Every structure is written in structure tokens, then in C-alpha cells.
Fold this protein.
Amino acid sequence: MNDFRKLLSYLGKYRKDLFIAALLVLIETCFELIIPTMMADLIDNGVAFADTRYMFIKGGQMAVCALLALATGLTYARFAARAAYGWGARIRRAEYERLQGFAFSNIDHFETSSLVTRMTSDVTVMQNSINNGLRPLVRAPVMFLLGLFFSFSMNAELALVFIILTPILGIVLFFIVSKAAPLYSRLQKTVDSLNSVVEENLRAVRTVKAFVRENYEEEKFEAVNERLYRTATRTNSTAVLNLPFFQAVMYLCILMLMFFGGRMVLSGTLLVGQLTGFLSYVMQVLNSMMMLSNVFLLLTRSLASAGRINEVLKEESSLKEKDNPIKDIPSGEIEFRSVSFKYYADADEYTLKNISLKIEDGSTVGILGGTGSGKSTLVQLIDRLYDASCGSVTVGGHDVRDYSLYELRESVAMVLQKNLLFSGTIRENLLWGNEEASDEELWSALETAGAKAFVSSFPAGLDTDLGQGGVNVSGGQKQRLCIARALLKKPRIIIFDDSLSAVDSATENQIRQELKKLEGVTKIFIAQRISTVMSADMIFVLDDGQLAASGTHEQLMKSSRVYQEICSSQLKGGSL
């Protein structure tokens, strides 16, 4: 319940709409509760004495009450919708903003499919708790209390009949709600699993088709879809049990009231109109309990979703920024001082182990090593995508944790191993590097990245649409566009994480020659090919998360067995 209350704090300006909606429901309910009393008077004082004038007056009053109830009900719907969807929008915004502040280690706690579900399906459940739950939540207690009051006012003896049966219904409904509660949490987790399978299939659709694995993917989807079907069926089958129990108790109550009430009418202790009005109030009392049971079921599901949403909102970023961080990065000098790192605090092994190295400002450095040696992990510590578990990483003579996170990342450009372009044009993607960049600067960056020629060949040039994820360009073209985007940041440090792997050797050499012209920029190349790093000022060789060797190409060829083995494996006809 605490999770639900915390989310209510996101109502903000919509709190007023929620209050007005609740007030309108209260007014509507009062109008509806007056009608049975008027109906009893109409029968006993109008119909019984054939007083047409009295019947018209009471009928008119009942019609006015019904119209006023209708008007307040329609007005309520407008305010309830504003409160529900406004609240949902604020919750989604809060979740999304929280995600943007997460470190990679925080994002690793959640599956992508689960985060999507928490921002869509779970928020929809929360919206429904107001949209569909506010009206019965307000009406039910009012109808229950006033219904009891009016029925006892009419005939206290007869009211004891449904007073005895009502607790039976309450006990049954409590049992149903307690059984359904854990099933709703399981249901949302099953939705996560379904989203995960769909997302993975869509992301890897080309691989699926290349390996002709459509049937396998269909079977995998069918399995999780069937599991969702079974979970949803079981959950809702339990939840809807309240309806038959309610109807059984309701009809039993009516039967007993008609029996005892009929005897009272025959004995002259109860009027026909009073019995009719009494039955109306009994129905309202029983309906109020039915509505409350539905509210409890809705609230139970909402609590499950509220807990999942709050897991995201309560997740604290593992990257903490100091109160008065340094905002000026003086140079691109980088130093690792006895750095060790592991992705999870309880992991048995460190991914990086006791790394100590220094990279001079403006130098060109190569980082080499086998798959899984920790190359990408190492450079991700520079701009604090992760923080070192032990030791420290310094940039410009200061620990990276002393800098403003925004300024640090503005000064470091990274071309990731997995190149990512966004839906939109080439221009829109390049402007991620510098929103104020002119066309001249865009073309200059494209030239340095070796992308000017193929971009010029497109009829629309910079305004060429790339499609979703850059599907309209090849892997090598995508890499070069990502390099151009990074260059537009005009960073002090630029990191190429195996970012030239998809281009041919001639193009790679041309790009490296262009990058040499960048002055005052520290350039770090992570590569699998010796040719990419052999001309670097310094090469660092990683092996199993440790710094195995460092030096120039010539020095390493003489002193490092690991480097020699890498060179030997890439020899073709006796030359690199």
C-alpha cells in the first residue's frame, strides 16, 4: 500500500480533478438514493389513493433527481479521465527521467522488456484504478451506509434479514481477493516474458531469417503466449468468482425478504410501497458490497503494478556526483591507478584486475587483446559509464568522480563497438554530436570520417532518411557516420571501440590519416587488427582482464609473447 501512496504524490495538479470527480460521485449517489423513498411515497400515497396529481408531482421529482444524477455522472467522467490519464503521464515521465539518470550497472538490474512493461502495461493498470475504481470506491460506502440507514428507518425488523446474510458475502469476497492478489504479480511477470520474446525476435529478425529459424521462434513465442494465457485465465477465473457468490446471496436475500415482507404486508404491519422501497435499498446495499469487492480486486492488481513501478523509481543511480563538481576538464591525460572492476558487487571474479597505465594528452593509443580480455570495459570507466570497483581513474589529473558527469561526458566521445543510428535523416543523427553545427562542419566531420563521398552520392545528401536504426546504410557506412557524429563533439578524448572493423583496409588507413590531423585530442583505438594500432604512440595489451604488456609496436614485438602471438595469427604471406 505504501507503493500506491507514493505514486499518488505524482498526481500534482491533477489532484484537484480527482477531488472534484469524487465530489461529483458523492452528489450523484445522493440523488440516486433519494429516488426509492420517493417511489415508496408515490405508491403508498399516490397509487394507493388514485391521486393522479400526487403521482405526477412525485414522478416529476424522481425524473429531476435522475437527470441530475445523469448530469453529475457525465461530468464526473470528464474529471476522472483527466485525473487518471494525467497521473499516468506523470508516472511514465518520472520513470523515463529516472532511466536517463541510470548508470549501466542500474540498467543491468532490469530486462529491457520488463522496463517497457513497467512504463506501459503497469501504468495502464494504475490509470484504470482511478478511471474504473474511483466511482465505485466513493459510491459503495455511501450507498452502503445510507442504504442501511433508510432500510432501518423503514423497517428495522425486516432489515435484520440481509444484515445476517451480508457478512457471509463479505467473508467469501475477502477469501477471493486474498487468493487473487499473488496471481496478479505473476501475471505481470508473464507479460514481461512475452515482451522479451517479441523484442528479441524483432531485433534479430534478419538473423532468424538467415538461419531459417522461423518455426523455432514461433514455437518459443507459442510457449510463452500459452503460459500468459493460462496465467491470465487462472487469475481472472479466481477474480470473477465473486459474481456467482454475490448473485446467490442476493437472490437468497430477496427471497427471504419477499417471504417475511409479504407476511408483514398481509398482516398490515408493512405497506406495499415500503416493501418496494425497502427492496430497492437492499439491492443498493448488496450492490455496494459487490462494487467494493471489484474495487479490492482492482486495487490488488494496482498494488502489484505499483510495486513494480516503484522498483524503478526507487532505484538509485550507482553514479554519485559531488555537491560542487569540477566543470572544466584541463587536458586529455588519462591514468588508471591500480584499477579493478567487476560488474556485480557479489561477483566472484573481477573483470579487470589491478590495471595501472598512463595515456599522455594528445597521444594516440591502441588497446589490443583477445575476446573477453576487458578492452571495452576498460574504456567505459573513463567517462563513468561504470565506476571502478577498486583504485581510481583520472582525467586531466583529477579523479573522474570529481567531475560534473555532464561535462566529463561532453569531453569524451565514444564510438561504440555496436554502432547505433536513430530513425531520421543523416543530418539529424549527426547533430547529436553538436546541435549547433553548421552544414560546413557536418561535411568536414564526414570527410574526416571517410563518409563524405557516399553521403554526397545520395540524392538528398544530408537529408537522406536512414530508416529505423540506420537500415538504409551498410555496416561500414554506419560506422563512419558514427565516427563523424563523435567528431562533431570536438572532444578532448575520443575512443574508437573496434569502430573500424566493418571498413576495408584502404578506407581504414584513410580515416586514420585524417584522425592524425586532430590536434590536442587523445585518441584511443580498441581493435582486433594489428594494422589499426601498430602505428600508435603506445599500445596496451590486455589478457584475461590484466595488463599483459605495453609499449610501441617494435618494443612489443621484442618483449611480449601475447603480442607476438596476435601478430603471428594475423600474418598473411609473412606480412601483416
Q: What stands out?
A: The radius of gyration is 35 Å.
